[in-house]
Amino acid sequence: MKLIESIAANADELQAIRRDIHAHPELGYDVFRTAALVAARLEQWGFAVTPNVGRTGVVGTLTRGASSRAIGLRADMDALPVQEANTFAHRSTAAGVMHACGHDGHTAMLLGAARHLAEHGRFDGTVHVIFQPAEEAGGGARAMIEDGLFERFPCDAVFGLHNWPGIAAGDFAVRPGALMASTSLFKIRLRGAGCHAAMPHLGRDPVLAAAHLLTALQGIVTRNRNPVEGAVLSVTQIHAGEALNVVPTDAWLGGTVRTFSEETLALIERRMHTIAASVASAFECECEVDFERQYPATINDPAQTALAVEVMRELVGEDHVNAAVDPTMAAEDFSFMLNARPGCYAFLGNGSGDHRSPGHGAGPCLLHNASYDFNDALLPVGASYFVKLVERFLG
Fold it and tell me: pTM here?
């Protein structure tokens, strides 16, 4: 592994930053403390700092030389509404809020890269370090873009990184094309006519309609979708009624849809409307379908992915880079940035959890788990990766 010496030498400082952020997690767009910490560090190192981009996002800008080329590097800052199970010293001090996805580590890695670029960077052009709120919910990347992110801070390409438990610590995994799925939510409301449960012929049962609809929806994936196109349709909730001896008037079911292509997503949405209306009609009920497209699929640009893979191999060695990892049905709002600019999103292995300090929870070290903790050994790896990307892209 060829870490950048100055970054490796500052590993303890990066760990302190990361653990401070972990101890003070913030949700969604309310990342005021974290954003202030980021802005203060960037200003200290000589970046031109623009706060409040997309409400609470922070962008730091650094220019060297005369080139008009520019690169964007992104980290997310928000935590999750999870009660932490860990009891080590840097555990969350906010009840019910926890950095259970490693955004504390992502922020610290990008700060480590920013410091090196300011003090030792060898590049010709402009670097924009983008610290984003509300990745977990609220579409912070979209909010920053709608606030003029790429008009105010032009980027020829943009890059991001996410730690990934289960991949060996310090190994990279990436692929050109679709890496992560789109995510959409749906809720289907059914209205019948309530009646006594002993006299169901006097009513119109929305519960029975919901049960048939749940089964019918699965036919979209098994019979309408091209089998070679990845897709998931999961009904995760059914709600109806309050009394055991009453057929209710209303029922609803809802869940999530994940796809890698817009065509498949459009097919599922269209068929969901048709099937819901038909099933409801068959049981003499009315229906209403709400279908919310949240994040698009994360699609890596082939050319920028090839460049990123070269940097990864130079940093950690060819044997520690999987350049054709299987895509995942998880979603990521960096996809909005990749829809606006070419770029690459990659995974950096977080290991199996053996790195956790004494006092960690009994659960596995998985994303969105109350016993998770970011692997601090990755901080100089991710920071070195970002720096080497800049030097290669703006070399």
Answer: 0.96
